[in-house]
Amino acid sequence: MLRESKQFSAYNYRTYAIRKIRDAFRENKNVKDPVEIQTLVNKAKRDLEIIHRQVHIGQLYSTDKLIIENQEKPKT
Amino acid sequence: MLLWTAWRRVAAALPAAQGPRPEAPTRGLRLRVADHAPQSAVPSNTATAPEMESVLRPLYMNVQATTPLDPRVLDAMLPYLVNYYGNPHSRTHAYGWESEAAMERACQQVASLTGADPHEIIFTSGATESNNIAIKGVARFYRSRKKHLITSQTEHKCVLDSCRSLEAEGFQVTYLPVKKSGIIDLKELEAAILPNTSLASVMSVNNEIGVKQPISEIGRICSSRKVYFHTDAAQAVGKIPLDVNDMKIDLMSISGHKIYGPKAERLIQKIMKSLRDVVMNGDPDHHYPGCINLSFAYVEGESLLMALKDVALSSGSACTSASLEPSYVLRAIGTDEDLAHSSIRFGIGHFTTEEEVDYTVEKCIYHVKRLREMSPLWEMVQDGIDLKSIKWTQH
């Protein structure tokens, strides 16, 4: 999911997706119940598809970079 | 109105290389063509400037006006804009059925966010239309017996304008003043309720200074006196907990494009630490962190906004008209004239990053210091002169 999110061309969407994915995985790392784990994995798969589609749309309609993208490399 | 102001600011502040100034809030989108050539698909009647590759977009810190559309939202909506285009009221075919199912899901989602029943949700074109419908609707419905309305002085323009137009129709409206913190006085509200009051309208979170009103208490007072309670929750829903039944809200206006969190603490602390004579407008305790309104003494708000051209911001003063009057909200909380002119509103949403906040803070501090260096008032203050003791001569 992180790999796909890094391809968002819009700075704000890219940083939000990366942050949210990391936070969500960290938050759920102690879940033990297999049913719950499966639910979360399914949700993650659906979200991955959403990211994939939206990355493409973003690239079709991309515009100039933000002023701060010039100065720092986006944190991977 | 705020969006229009923000667009004009951004348009006016961008370097001339971007092309002719737009006269309307929409401008031709500058898109990269899909084959990744570095030219933009600019409409042919605009001047194409050779320096376009060096133009970078400003940071967006104006979420009170509108927010970036979450990609998940766009993803959910696209099928209904491409293939599932049926009218939800078409009862006789699959296109209608699937659209109706989608509408019901949407009503369900909004209802669960606010504690309402799905059948109580009505979709309109936005919070402005909702506010108009709610206020004018209730007032006119009870016109024969009840002719009094209550609202506050810090409401959004659409609420105030609705009340004003109702006054022209023969209604009486009480505009409650606010305390210095921006919060209304509950005792004044109680005192203002008359036997012929039909509706009280108080917004949940103010769009200019971010102050949270005590909605539960207001709801309780209104329901005990049999007065309908309407709240403009455009800036609040999704960010602070709102339950229409708990808080006894009868009517609530929501805006679809302003929903959804805060690096605010960081911004406020950094600025306050590096600069003196900065005032935060609005109560610091009952405050929604994503909307920060700061007044920088001895600096003019418009000039600071122009200087911060790399960041999309908005100020408290309504400079769209020829009169440079400061915002009515700041006037209502009792801000001095000069501080009201130098207020800037920082909007932080959940797409805002720490880097953006740091960059904004850095630029803000730099420009405030630079503008203060140029200010004669600042010089006088440094020399220890009390500005209020100066007698300015009239010319």
Describe the structure in your own words:
The complex is a heterodimer of chains A (76) and B (395). Helix content of chain A is 63%, strand content 0%. Chain A contains 3 helices and no strands. Chain A is elongated. In chain B, the strands form 3 sheets. Chain B has a 5-stranded parallel sheet with strand order 3-2-4-5-6, with helices on both faces. Chain B has a 4-stranded antiparallel sheet with strand order 7-8-11-10. Chain B has a two-stranded parallel ribbon with strand order 1-9. The longest helix of chain B has 21 residues. Chains A and B meet through helix 2 and helix 3 of A and strand 1, helix 2 and helix 12 of B.
Name its key features.
heterodimer; A: 76 residues; mainly alpha; elongated; B: 395 residues; alpha/beta; four-stranded antiparallel β-sheet; 13 helices; 11 strands; 11% strand; disordered N terminus
Summed up:
Chain A is an all-alpha fold.
Low-confidence stretches of chain B: 1-28, 32-53, 317-322
Q: End-to-end span of chain B in angstroms?
A: 35 Å
Report the mean per-residue pLDDT of chain A as an integer.
Answer: 87
**Range of helix content of chain B:** 25-40%
Main sheet summary of chain B = 5 strands, parallel
Q: Main sheet of chain A?
A: none
The helix/strand series of chain B, from N terminus to C terminus, equals HEHHHEHEHEHEEHEEHEEHHEHH
Number of strands of chain B: 11
Net shape of chain B: globular
The assigned structural class of chain A equals mainly alpha
Q: State the distance separating the first and last CA atoms of chain A.
A: 13 Å
Form type of chain A: elongated
In which order are the strands of the major sheet of chain B placed? 3-2-4-5-6
Strand content of chain A: under 5%
